[in-house]
UniProtKB/TrEMBL annotation:
Transmembrane segments: none annotated. InterPro entries: C-N_Hydrolase, C-N_Hydrolase_sf, UPF0012_CS. GO terms for molecular function: acyltransferase activity; hydrolase activity. The lineage of its organism: Bacteria, Bacillati, Actinomycetota, Actinomycetes, Kitasatosporales. The keyword Hydrolase applies. The keyword Hydrolase applies. Pfam families: CN_hydrolase. CDD domains: nitrilase_5. Residues 1-242 form the CN hydrolase domain. SUPFAM superfamilies: Carbon-nitrogen hydrolase (SSF56317). Keywords: Acyltransferase, Hydrolase, Transferase. Belongs to the carbon-nitrogen hydrolase superfamily. NIT1/NIT2 family. This is Acyltransferase.
Length: 267
């Protein structure tokens, strides 16, 4: 199984419509050039994760312009597409930070509303509602477990995804440069403790005065970093062997020694 993470530079000088068109083309180009099975985009790449004032202005219904563009990009490219997240406007509720996944025919495969909102008493934490459901996606290559950015700090969410059968965590983010060390450390920690692949796709650029960390990273079930991006726009393509998840759990069966919470994970 091959995955390509597209680390997008999210700078506010680029209008949302232009970025949407540019990212759609990038998905097609990367798929044609690198031949991945799965393409991953970052969190809130239309607005930027820190452009709080843009959330309401640019919020879309679930099946809005980004959904349409990404469904088409997935089917044109013939890939599973984790299209990162959008500010979703629920007609009957608040805004949500919602990740979208499409199959290679452009069918919707999953929508995940970010559970842990970032900002403490401001920003996303007050402007958006919290999701409440764990989401996994079965693909022919592996079962994906979905999480978004700040979720990375909450290991119990990932244990829940493991119990639901996840073999690969896909984590779009808009992580700030100031806490870059946390980003890489937490991505590796989630891989080691849950014995899964972690595909963590962040943004580059600067928006709302916040420099983005970039440094998208792919970690294997042993915690080794397979690929890591720099600060700017970049594509990371990595070959993954989903059988290594079961093999790692067999060789080092720490998950079987769980005392608290659920017993050993389903596969
Ligand atoms: O946890 C962090 O340090 C960053 C989280 C974040 O930027 C987000 O969830 O948007």
């Amino acid at each position: 199984m091959r995955a390509s993470l597209i680390q997008i530079a999210v700078d506010e000088g680029e209008p949302v419509n232009s970025r949407r068109a540019r990212v759609s083309s990038l998905v097609r180009e990367v798929a044609a050039r690198e031949r991945p099975d799965l393409v991953v985009l970052p969190e809130l790449w239309t607005t930027g994760a820190f452009a709080y004032e843009a959330f309401a202005a640019e919020a879309e219904p679930l099946e809005g312009p980004t959904y349409e563009a990404m469904a088409k990009a997935a089917s044109d490219a013939g890939v599973w597409l984790h299209a990162g997240s959008i500010p979703e406007r629920d007609p009957k509720g608040p805004l949500y930070n919602t990740s979208l996944v499409f199959s290679p025919t452009g069918e919707p495969a999953a929508a995940y509303r970010k559970i842990h909102r970032f900002g403490f008493d401001k920003g996303e934490a007050v402007l958006m509602g919290a999701g409440s459901e764990l989401v996994t996606v079965r693909t022919p290559g592996a079962t994906l477990g979905l999480a978004t950015c700040y979720d990375l700090r909450f290991p119990e969410l990932f244990r829940g995804l493991v119990d639901a059968g996840a073999e690969m965590f896909v984590v779009p983010a808009g992580w700030p440069a100031r806490r870059r060390e946390h980003w890489t450390l937490l991505a590796r920690a989630r891989a080691v403790e849950d014995q899964v692949y972690v595909l963590a796709c962040g943004t580059g650029g600067t928006h709302a005065g916040v420099d983005q960390a970039g440094h998208s990273v792919v970690v294997d079930p042993w915690g080794e970093v397979l690929a890591e991006a720099g600060d700017g726009e970049e594509v990371l393509t990595v070959d993954l062997d989903p059988a290594r998840v079961a093999a790692t759990r067999e060789q080092f069966p720490a998950l079987k020694d769980r005392v608290l919470g659920s017993p050993a994970p389903r596969r």
